[in-house]
């Protein structure tokens, strides 16, 4: 790395909005240089970069389909060219399409499989090959794997696959001083979660946790920052960030 480069570098997939943006901004506050990944909306990624740099941080935007191994190899290359290496990969990118299992459009199943499972696998594969010693891989699951809400069957199944590959990768990286964990948020006030829900449903979910509120993107970002930095003895785990809901 060049002399003026920071000591740590993070790539945040899906970093242009919601939880991903909060994660990117939170890591930047810790002095980590951030690559804000986007799939299709470059302007939102640029907005995140602008917010980070305005606050005194360092950030760039990188694009690419997370399920496309060539596109993600190029994204990782771009980060390494800019900053000299990668220490943290926070893989927040994902999609959620809800339906009872009996009536789910199988095209929706395939879309979630491609983004949530293949995409996580592709990014984890690149991370396993590139992250420097002392680094961290942080994938994203969901508390619905425990909560078992109706209509979340296919989504929860895709995230259960994320948990499985995360726990295996942690063991495959034995001896490399790289931690691999997953964060499993509960109901969180993002457009991904709130869209399509009526106010009564939102209110009920807000009261379900003992802390009697929805999570915020910043709540989840704190968990990621912990795993990305000081939490060197937490490895091969799924952390349920849900206010005690499950």
The radius of gyration computed from the alpha-carbon positions, rounded to a whole number of angstroms, is 17 Å
CATH class: Alpha Beta
- What's the SSE pattern? EHEHEHEHEHHEHHHE
Give the full name of the CATH homologous superfamily: NAD(P)-binding Rossmann-like Domain
Give me the number of helical elements. 9
The averaged pLDDT comes out at 94
Description:
By secondary structure, the protein is an alpha/beta fold. It has a single domain, classed as NAD(P)-binding Rossmann-like Domain (Rossmann fold). The chain is 47% helix and 15% strand. The chain has nine helices and seven strands; from the N terminus they run E-H-E-H-E-H-E-H-E-H-H-E-H-H-H-E. It has a seven-stranded parallel β-sheet, with helices on both faces. Strand 4 (88-91), helix 4 and strand 5 form a beta-alpha-beta unit. Helix 1 (18-29) runs parallel beside helix 2 (42-54), helix 1 packs across helix 9 (217-228) and helix 4 (106-130) runs parallel beside helix 6. It is globular.
In short:
This protein is of the alpha/beta class and 246 residues long. It has helices at residues 18-29, 42-54, 69-83, 106-130, 144-147, 153-172, 191-194, 199-208, 217-228; strands spanning 9-13, 33-38, 59-63, 88-91, 136-140, 179-185, 238-241.
């Amino acid at each position: 790395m060049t002399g003026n480069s920071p000591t740590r570098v993070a790539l945040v997939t899906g970093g242009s909005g919601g939880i991903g943006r909060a994660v990117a901004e939170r890591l930047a506050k810790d002095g980590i240089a951030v690559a804000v990944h986007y799939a299709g909306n470059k302007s939102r990624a640029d907005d995140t970069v602008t917010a980070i740099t305005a606050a005194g941080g360092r950030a760039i935007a990188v694009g690419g389909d997370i399920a496309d191994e060539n596109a993600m190899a190029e994204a990782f290359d771009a980060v390494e060219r800019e900053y000299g290496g990668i220490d943290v990969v926070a893989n927040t990118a994902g999609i959620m399409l809800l339906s009872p299992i009996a009536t789910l459009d199988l095209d929706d199943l395939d879309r979630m499989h491609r983004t949530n499972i293949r995409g996580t696998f592709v990014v984890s594969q690149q991370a396993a090959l590139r992250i420097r010693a002392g680094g961290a891989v942080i994938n994203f699951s969901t508390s619905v794997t425990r909560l078992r809400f109706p209509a979340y069957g296919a989504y929860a199944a895709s995230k259960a696959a994320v948990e499985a590959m995360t726990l295996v990768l942690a063991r495959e990286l034995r001896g490399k001083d790289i931690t691999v964990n997953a964060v499993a948020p509960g109901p969180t006030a993002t457009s991904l979660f709130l869209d399509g829900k009526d106010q009564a449903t939102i209110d009920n979910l807000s009261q379900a946790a003992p802390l009697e509120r929805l999570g915020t993107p910043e709540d989840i970002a704190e968990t990621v920052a912990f795993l990305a930095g000081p939490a060197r003895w937490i490895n091969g785990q799924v952390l349920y960030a849900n206010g005690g809901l499950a």
